[in-house]
Write a structure and sequence with these properties.
5 helices
């Protein structure tokens, strides 16, 4: 279970990290360029399925490691951070996706939506990195 938790949480980190790393290059793009760049993410919803799997793996890790209080705490923290990622996505990222129909429609407030989308991914990268750290530390005990 330890290995599975580390692997799934690490894989769940890839997409938000990619978004965060591209933020500096994308945040100042002109409208037309930004909407073209966003099409590179078509089909990335499938990567989002890693988050519930990472949550389940970390929950399983907590159960397996329940006799070791620090490892249990770290596993529960990792699972909670994965849930936080999903909450941030639902509150900030998904509304921007919906308002732009996955970046195929250009509403007047597109710049606000872009900031919301980009920064929510950056925050989620940090949250998921913390989850990965917790999972790794729990699994190394």
């Amino acid at each position: 279970m330890r290995f599975l938790a580390v692997i799934l949480t690490g894989l769940a980190l890839i997409a938000p990290a990619a978004h965060a790393l591209s933020l500096v290059n994308k945040i100042g793009m002109a409208k037309a360029d930004y909407f073209v760049a966003q099409q590179a993410y078509a089909g990335w919803w499938i990567v989002g399925l890693l988050l519930p799997l990472a949550f389940l793996a970390n929950t399983g890790n907590a159960i397996v490691l329940r006799a070791d209080a620090p490892a249990l705490t770290l596993s529960v923290a990792a699972a909670a951070l994965i849930v936080l990622n999903l909450v941030i996505f639902m509150l900030f990222t998904q509304p921007a996706n919906a308002a732009t129909e996955n970046w195929t429609v250009q509403p007047d407030n597109w710049e606000t939506l872009r900031r919301q989308w980009e920064y929510s991914h950056a925050v989620n990268a940090a949250v998921t990195l913390l989850a990965f750290g917790c999972t790794t530390l729990a699994s190394l005990r």
